[in-house]
Amino acid sequence: MRIRLTPNKVIKYLILSDLAFYTGWGFINPIFAIFVVEKIQGGNAFVVGMASAVFWLVKSLLRVPIGIFLDTCPSERDDYFALVAGLFIAALVPFGYIFAKIPLHIYILQGFHGFGLAMSLSGWTAIFTRHIDKGRESTEWGLDATSIGLGTAAAGAFGGWAVTKFGFTSVLILTGIFGLFGVGLLFALRNEIRGVFDHKLLDHGLYLHLRDIFHREKK
């Protein structure tokens, strides 16, 4: 039996986006507790635990409702927009950490992180499931998991070293850049996802809107 590891374009870019985004978070996740204790006023083990709780509560409680909403939308465009918007929100969180001073700031940012991932994962899983190559489901899910695992492993080692050399701010900026790069990779799928950037629909909608404006002015 011939084994082919090259997925179709949609799956490939979803995996590459995951690789970039989660590699970025791999820089800071292993040392997040140290960041909270050293850089946040009143930061301690309790604050770290609460920050983790806020993230998982928001992400877990919103995941199903967002998924239900997206399932009621007939167009794949909604899944794509949820994926891009959610990942963009999550990618901005590391930049917010730079300016965080007190535990409340961390909790709010963790809430945004959970909300962003709940959105992006709802869209990501829908698109991935819909476009996965038939007969290669386990292989392509495995490619995604393996790429995330290897990227996170390398980033964890590098992030710990980078913090000792350059400080937390540099690593947080790098995390955000990787996250935004992951978002940017998704724009390569704008022609593959049905209904995204449909110029005919946009032009038609703009025409109707302008016609309505001019019609009202004539009256």
- Quickly count the helices: 8
Low-confidence stretches: 201-210
Overall body shape: globular
Helix coverage percent of residues? Answer: over 70%
Strand content: under 5%
Q: What fold name stands as the CATH topology?
A: Growth Hormone, Chain: A
Question: Regarding CATH, which class?
Answer: Mainly Alpha
Quickly give the CATH architecture: Up-down Bundle
- How many whole angstroms does the radius of gyration measure? 20 Å
Secondary structure: number of strands: 0
Largest pleated sheet: none
Determine the structural class based on helices, strands and strand pairing. Answer: mainly alpha
Instruction: Kindly report how far apart the N and C termini lie.
Output: 72 Å
CATH homologous superfamily? MFS general substrate transporter like domains
Whole-number mean pLDDT: 88
Indicate how many domains the architecture comprises: 1
What is the succession of H and E elements? Answer: HHHHHHHH
Can you describe this structure?
- The protein is an all-alpha fold and 219 residues long.
- It is built from eight helices and no strands.
- The chain has one domain (9-218): Growth Hormone, Chain: A, CATH 1.20.1250.20.
- Helices cover 81% and strands 0% of the residues.
- The longest helix has 30 residues, at 137-166.
- The radius of gyration is 20 Å and the shape is globular.
